[in-house]
Design brief:
Elements lengths: L10 E8 L3 E8 L4 E6 L4 E8 L2 E5 L4 E5 L4 E4 L5 E5 L5 E8 L6 E2 L3
């Protein structure tokens, strides 16, 4: 996944559709893996759980949202967050990002 700032061991993704201000990606995260703390300058994240269980954790305010199949959660623009697989098997989710240009800004947890 060269050039992919979210490339991490145990995390796979496939961008399904992308335009100048929207992005639709499918993710698979292995048990115990995570997408680390980060934020986006212009886009909100909409997570839709397809399989397994994972959490989206945010800072300021601190919040943990656990998603299972069919659940959806939105992270606003500039909110620091991370995604953690909470189950014993891979989790899969769809991520819709917009409106604006995609970026990934790492933050120390």
């Amino acid at each position: 996944m060269a050039g992919n700032p979210t490339a991490r061991p145990g995390v796979a993704n496939e961008v399904i559709a992308q335009s100048a201000d929207m992005r639709f990606t499918l993710y698979t995260i292995d048990a115990g893996a995570q997408i680390p703390w980060h934020f986006h300058s212009e886009v909100s994240d909409w997570y839709i759980c397809r399989e397994g269980v994972f959490s989206v954790e945010t800072q300021s305010p601190d919040h943990v949202e656990t998603l299972s199949v069919g659940a959806m959660f939105q992270v606003p623009v500039r909110r620091v967050h991370r995604v953690v697989n909470q189950g014993d098997s891979p989790c899969r989710f769809a991520l819709v990002q917009g409106l604006g240009a995609y970026d990934f800004n790492p933050v120390d947890g």
